[in-house]
UniProtKB/TrEMBL annotation:
Superkingdom of source: Bacteria
Domain BD-FAE-like: 58-255
Keywords: Hydrolase
Protein name per the record: Alpha/beta hydrolase
GO MF terms, alphabetically ordered: hydrolase activity
Organism (species): Algoriphagus kandeliae
UniProt-listed Pfam families: BD-FAE
PANTHER family the UniProt entry points to: AB HYDROLASE SUPERFAMILY PROTEIN C4A8.06C, ALPHA_BETA HYDROLASE
Amino acid sequence: MQKVDFSTLFKHLAASTFFLGILFLSSCGSTDDPIPDGPLPALELFDSSYGQDARQVMDIFLPAGRTLENTPVMIYIHGGAWIDGSKDEFLQFKTAFEQALPDFAFVAINYRLFDFITNANRFPTQENDVIAAIQHVLENRVNWNISDELYLAGASAGGHLALLHAYKHQEVGNIQAVLALFPPTDLTTLYDFNFLTQSGLTALLNGNPQSNPDAYFQSSPVNFINPNSPPTAFFHGTVDTVVPISQSDLLASKLEEAGVPYEYQIIEGQGHGFTPATYATIISQISAFIDTLN
């Protein structure tokens, strides 16, 4: 028969009793309530993943005092011709947006970029990443204490992606409005603008408008505008040599035809990118536009 070491047994029992007591006291202590005792403080979360790829990350900027009912979210999508750029683009506008829209939370997203060398991440990869990012925000809105009211914003290729999602995927997210700076809106007509747009779009969409017309149709925001599309504000310079202002002229015409509320500002003498003073004015106009919707 094996001899029982009672001294060792008692030591284990005593230790177990001690730790159980600690767990009991910590679970019952009234001073350890995890619910905050006042308004939530501001919080910034960087490189939060919304997918498996290294590019599928976002930065989240949550305001102080946020609530599930009263904190709408603006999701910003960067530009870069679908081949370059990052979510850091938002940082140049962050302070101005936070001052103009103090009750908003802001999310800046990366998305997978097209690779000219390998042809990896052709469209609609970027379109699908916007969908995944929005779903990730909605899945975490209780944790972050934010509303389900979403506003999409972006510049250049980011403006294109914001418009495309707002018009084409209305079932994904409660999109209140969409805001775009010098956006491509119809890739079929953009194709012939110059050699760069021809070569870039041919690679991105795996063909030209004649050889792959469905890809151009499916990737063009103006093709999905309908009377229920969200209100839209957009801004374009008259001397833009990257995305011609005719792209925004066409957008305005389609929105007018469908009866969708919109604001179109033509920026005289400026190109693909505005001066700091112009950006400040635009952000103020965006805030006023949003106010008219509420």
